[in-house]
């Protein structure tokens, strides 16, 4: 019987390295660099090393704590803070991140002051709002915004960027991607800037990039999901020649018994405020697994055994129908994950990690 703890994530670093390298080679002729995004892994140093070994030149994360963790583990790479800095954390941002994404003048002013206190210079990427209505400066205000940023003594404008899809689901298209390029051209001409980075978004941009015939006017992408799961974001389509199974969730059976498919008694809402709906399928082999909604997003996982289906879950228990493929107590069952499920499982302190393959850069 397997003695490795469950639930666990099995993380194949060789496959992550392969996915990273595959995406870099795919876009290098277009002049697009890749920032490896580790936020879904809670700043895993092992995953960061695999991405760097695969060819990324910088690591991006949305949490300063994750960046600190990777730096403390000896990861030697430029770090980009992918979330607008908290004004109360500007010293930490300057201390640990080489670059940060920004959209608020008051924060940028404090970043410059922190950089002066610490005897450093800090680079910023200005985020432009192109329709998704998360972070970003209005295109109508960006020129005035840049003019004010240039007056801060200890900051350098590294570039501009945008974020689409994550909040409102607005997809990248010819119009908003062209607008990003036009803004970059205008700012460089008007202010004499050398925008080193024009960041065209995240893994949601890949579907557009694979299919567009328009001129590509950005030179960077911030990729996490496509590296870790081998899929683009918009339609969850697999990317050719990439691994979709670099990370799997492994659970074990803690109960295996034949029970009815329909509950008995008057039904009300469950612990999560939902009134479940069940289908009458007669008696079934119901197996309880050692993972629950506290650990993973239920609608984001799928059994790798096609004969086993999910019935439902509570906080700490996942119930599956194993009638067509019986499982005994102690048996393990593997699941694929989407990005939301991966993020939840990586965040849960109860889900262990097992790294496979090379852990060295």
Helix-strand makeup class: alpha/beta
* Tally of helical segments: 10
Ends apart, CA distance between termini: 33 Å
CATH topology of the largest domain: TIM Barrel
CATH architectural grouping of the largest domain: Alpha-Beta Barrel
Helix content: 25-40%
| Radius of gyration based on Cα positions | 23 Å
User: Can you tell me the CATH superfamily of the largest domain?
Assistant: Alanine racemase
What's the helix-strand series? EHEHEHEHEHEHEHEHEHEEEEEEHE
The overall number of domains is 2
Name the poorly predicted regions.
none
Q: Tell me what portion of residues adopts beta-strand conformation.
A: 15-25%
State the major sheet.
8 strands, mixed
SSE arrangement:
Elements: E1 8-12, H1 13-28, E2 33-37, H2 45-54, E3 58-61, H3 64-72, E4 79-81, H4 90-96, E5 99-102, H5 105-118, E6 122-127, H6 142-149, E7 155-161, H7 174-191, E8 197-199, H8 206-211, E9 220-223, H9 225-229, E10 247-260, E11 283-289, E12 301-303, E13 309-313, E14 318-321, E15 332-337, H10 339-347, E16 352-356
Helix pairs in contact: 1-2, 4-5
Could you explain the architecture of this structure?
The protein is α/β, with parallel strands linked by helices and 361 residues long. The chain folds into two domains: 32-229, Alanine racemase (TIM Barrel, Alpha-Beta Barrel); 247-356, Elongation Factor Tu (Ef-tu), domain 3, CATH 2.40.30. The chain is built from ten helices and 16 strands. The chain has helices at 13-28, 45-54, 64-72, 90-96, 105-118, 142-149, 174-191, 206-211, 225-229, 339-347, and strands at residues 8-12, 33-37, 58-61, 79-81, 99-102, 122-127, 155-161, 197-199, 220-223, 247-260, 283-289, 301-303, 309-313, 318-321, 332-337, 352-356. The strands form two sheets. Strands 1, 10, 11, 12, 13, 14, 15 and 16 form an eight-stranded mixed sheet that branches. α1 runs parallel beside α2 and α4 packs across α5 (105-118). The mean pLDDT is 95.
């Amino acid at each position: 019987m397997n003695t490795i703890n469950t639930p666990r994530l099995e993380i194949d670093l060789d496959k992550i390295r392969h996915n990273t390298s595959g995406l870099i080679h795919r876009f290098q002729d277009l002049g697009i660099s890749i920032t490896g995004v580790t936020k879904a892994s809670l700043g895993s140093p092992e995953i960061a090393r695999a991405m760097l070994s695969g060819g990324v030149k910088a690591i991006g994360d949305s949490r300063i704590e994750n960046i600190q963790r990777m730096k403390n583990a000896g990861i030697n790479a430029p770090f980009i803070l992918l979330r607008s800095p908290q004004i109360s954390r500007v010293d930490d941002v300057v201390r640990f991140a080489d670059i940060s994404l920004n959209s608020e003048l008051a924060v940028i002013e404090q970043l410059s002051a922190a950089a002066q206190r610490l005897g450093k210079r800090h680079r910023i990427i200005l985020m432009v709002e192109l329709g998704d209505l998360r972070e970003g400066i209005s295109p109508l205000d960006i020129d005035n915004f840049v003019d004010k940023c240039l007056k801060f003594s200890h900051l350098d404008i590294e570039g501009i960027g945008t974020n689409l899809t994550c909040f409102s689901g607005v997809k990248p298209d010819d119009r908003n991607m062209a607008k990003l390029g036009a803004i970059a051209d205008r700012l460089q001409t008007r202010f004499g800037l050398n925008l080193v980075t024009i960041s065209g978004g995240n893994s949601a941009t890949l579907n557009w990039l694979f299919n567009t015939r328009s001129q590509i006017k950005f030179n960077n992408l911030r990729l996490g999901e496509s590296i870790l799961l081998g899929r683009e974001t918009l339609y969850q389509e697999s990317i050719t020649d990439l691994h979709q199974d670099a990370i799997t969730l492994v659970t074990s059976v803690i109960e295996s018994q034949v029970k009815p498919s329909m509950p008995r008694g008057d039904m009300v809402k469950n612990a999560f405020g939902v009134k479940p709906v069940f289908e009458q399928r007669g008696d079934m082999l119901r197996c309880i697994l050692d993972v629950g909604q506290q650990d993973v997003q239920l609608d984001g996982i799928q059994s790798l055994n096609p004969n086993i289906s999910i019935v439902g879950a509570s906080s700490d228990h996942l119930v599956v129908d194993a009638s067509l493929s019986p499982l005994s107590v102690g048996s393990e069952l593997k699941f694929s994950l989407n990005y939301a499920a991966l993020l939840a499982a990586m965040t849960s302190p109860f889900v262990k990690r097992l790294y496979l393959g090379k852990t060295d850069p």
